Each structure stands twice: as C-alpha cells, then as structure tokens.
Amino acid sequence: MFSKLIFLLIVPAVFGINLQVSYQQGPCQSANVSTMPFFEMDRFLGEWVEHYRSLLLDDQDDCGKNYYSAFNGTFYNLTETKTNIATGRNTSSAFSVRLAEPLSNPVYGKLLVNNEYGMYYVPLTDYTRYAFVQACEAVNSTHYVLHLWLLGRPGANININEFFIGGTDLLRPTIQDDRCIGIFPNTNTTTVSPTTPDGASAIMVPSVLALLILKAFQMFV
Ligand SMILES: *[C@@H]1O[C@H](CO)[C@@H](O)[C@H](O)[C@H]1NC(C)=O
Ligand SMILES: *[C@@H]1O[C@H](CO)[C@@H](O)[C@H](O)[C@H]1NC(C)=O
Ligand SMILES: *[C@@H]1O[C@H](CO)[C@@H](O)[C@H](O)[C@H]1NC(C)=O
Ligand SMILES: *[C@@H]1O[C@H](CO)[C@@H](O)[C@H](O)[C@H]1NC(C)=O
Ligand SMILES: *[C@@H]1O[C@H](CO)[C@@H](O)[C@H](O)[C@H]1NC(C)=O
Ligand SMILES: *[C@@H]1O[C@H](CO)[C@@H](O)[C@H](O)[C@H]1NC(C)=O
Which residues form the signal peptide (predicted)? Predict the structure, then answer.
C-alpha cells in the first residue's frame, strides 16, 4: 500500500509505448515486454471490448470481446468472442488463466493463458476504462512479433490519442457497432465492482491518463 503510493507519485503521468515495426529476431523469451506492477486481477475481471489491434498477422476479425471471470482462488476463465463480418464466421473460445507470478512482490500483469500465445502481458490498465494487452508470437524458429490490443470497458469512450503510442499505423481500429450486436449471448458472468478497494489509487488513477513510461522496444530498421 505504502510502496504503491510512492510508485504512483514518482512515475510521470504519461504512457508511452513504441510498437515494433517488424518481426524481431530471437525467441519470445528475449522480448522485454513491460508489465504493470501492483496488478489487481480482481479489478481486471469482467467484460472488455476490443478497440484496436495489431495489424501484423491480423485475422480480419472484428467485434472482439473478452470476458474474464473468477473460477477458483487461483484460476480464472477467459472467453474471447469475435466475428469476421465479411465471411460471417463467429468464433468463441474459452481459456483458462492464472497469474504467472502470483507470489511476486509486487504482482505484475502477467497472465498464463492456455492459448497459442501462452502469456498475456498487461502493460497498463486503469481497470475502469481501458486496458492494454500484449502477447508474443513466435512466427518461426528465429523471429517473434509482439501483438498489442487496446481494450475498453463496455460503453467507455476510448481515444487512442490519449496515449503516446509510437507506430499507431501498426494498429487498426476494430468494428464495434450494430453489426456486432446479438451475435453472441452476453457471457458476462462476473460482478465487477466500480469502486476501487484502495483509497490512494482511487484518488490518483482517474486524475492521470496513464502512469507508466514503458521501456521502449528496440525499433527494427
Ligand atoms: C531485454 O533486457 C535485458 C536486460 O535488461 C537486455 O540485456 C536485453 O538486451 C533486452 N532485450 C531486448 C530485445 O531489448
Ligand atoms: C482451481 O482449479 C484448477 C483447475 O481446475 C485446479 O487445478 C486447482 O487445484 C484449483 N485450485 C483451488 C484452490 O481450488
Ligand atoms: C473455467 O476454468 C476451469 C479451470 O480451467 C475449467 O475447468 C472450467 O471448465 C472453465 N469453465 C468454463 C465455463 O469455461
Ligand atoms: C522467420 O521470419 C522472418 C521474418 O519474416 C524471416 O526474415 C526469417 O528468414 C524466417 N526464418 C526462418 C528460419 O524461416
Ligand atoms: C454469426 O452470428 C450471426 C448473428 O447471430 C448469424 O447471423 C450468422 O449466421 C453467424 N455466422 C455463422 C457462420 O454461423
Ligand atoms: C456485466 O456485469 C456487470 C455487473 O453485473 C454489469 O454492471 C454490466 O453492465 C454487465 N455488462 C453487460 C454488457 O451486460
């Protein structure tokens, strides 16, 4: 609690992230993916709507939604739904999630997910409006690529210009309009409390757009 407050006070009120312009050489283990300290999984639960996704290896799907819910003390369920509007293909996938390092101090936003990525990194979220999620994909035996998603809570007005993202041309806004309604039943089974459990962060978090400067990734030129 005390260390959290100190952390919030010393970091500049800016969020920066440089997107990689190409594939990176090496295994995913060599990717330095920034993750949020003092990550609170309970506040991360609930429904997230996809606003932006990486273009590299884009599968052309839209209407993306993620639903996180608690399963037991250790495991969480994640349901991801999306639709390819052009082909009409609807995809719903259920995954099991747990904190990668639940006992670290502080706990970082690193989630083990039993999908093709294996790990989701949360570089930043305010829990109530937006969340950034990254995943590393090994494109072949020698190269990897980092994906980025910008998610928002349902109804949240997210403007990508709130954030300092280098390489936004590598992201595309995804469709979230009437074409998405009714394709999937609402799988939102988690009650998300809008109140923050911590007085310090309740004061600090809404007052700044973002809290971290992420270590910039090496640009591949
Ligand atoms: C990741 O961080 C380590 C330690 O700071 C550094 O040695 C390494 O070069 C970094 N890797 C990349 C790809 O930036
Ligand atoms: C939670 O569920 C997982 C997966 O079914 C299981 O391996 C684990 O033992 C459970 N943990 C608790 C605390 O019940
Ligand atoms: C939730 O996750 C647990 C543990 O992995 C799994 O046993 C269960 O089937 C999942 N529930 C749903 C609805 O996907
Ligand atoms: C892996 O992919 C990169 C980027 O497309 C390419 O430059 C490299 O030659 C590939 N390596 C192998 C072993 O296929
Ligand atoms: C996807 O869902 C929509 C809305 O329910 C439905 O009209 C469409 O047929 C579905 N597509 C497929 C391939 O089942
Ligand atoms: C999800 O559940 C929460 C808590 O019950 C509720 O406030 C929210 O409106 C629900 N979202 C949707 C899309 O139904």
Answer: 1-16
Residue whose Cα lies nearest atom 1 of ligand 1: it is 32
Distance 71 CA to ligand 3 centre (A): 7
State in Å: Cα 125 to ligand 1 middle: 24
Residue 112 in tokens: 């083990």
CATH of domain 23-208: 2.40.128.20
Is the whole-model pTM more than 0.85?
Answer: no
Beta strands in the chain (DSSP E): 16-18, 24-25, 46-54, 62-70, 76-84, 89-99, 110-113, 119-125, 130-138, 143-152, 164-166, 171-173
95-144 pLDDT tens trace: 999 999 999 999 999 999 999 999 999 999 999 999 999 999 999 999 99
CA atoms of 156 and 47, how far apart (whole Å): 11
Distance CA 48, CA 153 (A): 5
